Amino acid sequence: MNKEIKCFKYAPDGLIFVGIIEDYDSFSFERSYSGVGQWQIVISPYSSGAQYLVNADIIAVEAGVAGLITNKTEIKNETYTISGVELKGIASKRIVYPPEGQAYLHYREAPETIIKSILTTQITSAVASRKIAGTVVDDGIVSAKITYDGRFGVVAEDIAAIAETYGIGWYADVQGNAIVWHIYHGKDGTATQSTNNRFLIDAENAGGEIERLYHNANCALVAGQGEGVDRAIVYVNDSVSGWNRNELYVDARDIDDNSLLPQRGTEKLAEYGTDTTLLVEPYNFLLNTYRTGYDLGDIGTYVPLNLSVRLTKITEVYENNAFSLTYDFGYDAHTLSQRLNRMEKNTTTLFSKEA
After folding, report:
1. Could you read off the pLDDT of 100-126 as tens digits, one per residue?
2. Is the dihedral of CA 92, 98, 100, 106 positive or negative?
3. Whose CA is closest to 171, among 158, 185, 161?
4. Are 27 and 318 in contact (CB under 8 A)?
5. What is residue 332's DSSP assignment?
């Protein structure tokens, strides 16, 4: 049976319900933990649901599965294709405006707090001409403080770069007739812990592809200001040892506050992505426990290799009254590096030199 899709029109005082569709040919929805996923509906132009979609701006299915409509293409007498991005793609409609009279939007806070503040100042509580009504909630977990200086970057890109670097999830969905933004952390479902349900990916049944980067940089020496033996030096991930230790030198002489050197090291290491990326074909256990035993952002164990991997992207597919899933584990270095480079073009450095 096809999944029920609700359609809404945006209005500042509350979303306007348009209608419900179930009679589509196919529906695929990509959920991304730190980035912004895409979706697509293929439907007959003679379906009543097609008319709902023509008049809608937003679709909503369930928690974490809501989309912004960005494209509508009709092929006469055959099919009607509607596509878009996850609802958090609203953040691509805004760039980061610094406060009036200031060069940067500056924060020295936990990355989770910074993401929440960016969403609030640039979208939900922005000036009237920029505001898109909504609220922002989080799971209460905060990491160590970092420094952020935003200036004219695309809001979604800045948030994605921070989220991928520090392993944070975010999404927007529809609750009632309102848009609600969420900042959260996936659970640890690895084989060695006993607090949460274990999330085990059976290599024999999963199939797919696995890529391991055995020489990926995983610890950094960050050099700040000074000369010779007086130069400020910090180490990031210095606990990694032996054969598996792959060192990276980071020249950070532009930073005059030594407390920010570890942050620079963490960000540079993040540009290399994760050392393991995994594409998995779903099997019965994964299909049957999706969103009950595990969900997007959770960290699982790929057995029998005993590899810890984070579920960073998942695509739900509904077609011919059948349901299937595809999975991505780990972060791709190329994608994150592109985001960080775009941020650096808008600021002198990715993050501020000031405390």
Report:
1. 999 999 999 999 999 999 999 999 999
2. positive
3. 185
4. yes
5. -
